Amino acid sequence: MKKPRLIASDLDGTLLLHGAQQLNPEACGLIQQVLDQGIFFAAASGRQYFNLQNLFSPVRDQIAYLCENGCLSYYHDEILNREVMDRELGRRIIRMIEEDPACEPLVSGTKTSYIRSGNPSYYSLLHDVVRDDVTIVPDLCAIEEPYMKISIYTDSVERILPDWQRKAGSFCTVATGGSQWLDMMPAGVNKSTALRKIMERLGVEPEDCIAFGDNDNDREMLEMVGCPIVMDTAVPSVRPLGRYHTDTVEHALQRILSGEGFD
To answer: Which domains does the chain have, with CATH numbers?
Structure first.
């Protein structure tokens, strides 16, 4: 693939390395050059739309957004897909999370994320560090907005993953989003769900797309595209999915822009 028509990139662990919460200026400059060459770009993340727009501020109106691990996507502020969870299932999941004192729930709505009251440090992490739009509510089960993604923040995802795969894996998509986040989406929903909608909107075929990723929640997206590129620091289960590997997305974008491409 000498010149792709669409580049989709994961954020945490991919474009954002070593816990970074801001894109470096070089990355934004390279994305602008990609756009100037007529190549579409999509931010592909478990993060919310508000957060992604702020991260990509210099190019925010020019790119597509794959948000909430595939539950929501936008292009030019148009919603392309919005996947919601059965309400009773969502409430059951929330109650189970709240039974574990080592876990904090996070419920994703379209414009904001909801957390329960009582943990100021958790609010500070989301609002001041991650820079999400966050709404504190007394009861997550009483939220009027439909549930999209329900997440767990904990000290160790490895500790809780087997139990949650057993409890919820047959009812929804369970995916890790890093060492401290476990995400649950409606059954069958993943990043490829939203990426497919973006491709349809842009008139791009999967074989003309490059995708970057590093974690299990990138799996279906990487399997879908013509040229999957996996980070050198990817988790072992994802590394075999890469047609190519890279130390940084910036280095790969430089190669694309130079015309060298990936064949």
So the answer is: 6-82+189-257 (3.40.50.1000), 87-186 (3.30.1240.10)
CA 181 to chain centre: 12
| Residue range 135-147, pLDDT digits in tens | 999 999 999 999 9
- In terms of DSSP bridges, do strands 227-231 and 6-9 run parallel, antiparallel, or are they unpaired? unpaired
Whole-prediction pTM value?
0.94
Burial classification of residue 10, based on how many CB atoms lie within 10 Å of its CB (0-12 exposed, 13-18 middle, 19 or more buried): buried
> Using one digit for the tens of pLDDT, what is the confidence trace for 166-181?
999 999 999 988 789 9
Q: What is the mean pLDDT of residues 35-50?
A: 97
Do the beta carbons of residue 126 and residue 106 sit within 8 Å? Answer: yes
List, edge to edge, every strand of the sheet that includes 209-213: 78-82, 72-75, 64-67, 40-44, 6-9, 209-213, 227-231, 244-246
* Cα–Cα distances in angstroms (integers) from residue 241 to residues 46, 70, 216, 236, in the given order: 20, 19, 11, 10
CB 99 within 8 A of CB 219: no
H-helix or E-strand spanning residue 158: helix 157-168
Q: Tokens 């609002």 correspond to what residue? A: 127
Query: For position 179, what pLDDT does the model report?
Result: 82
- Provide the residue type at 233 as one letter: T
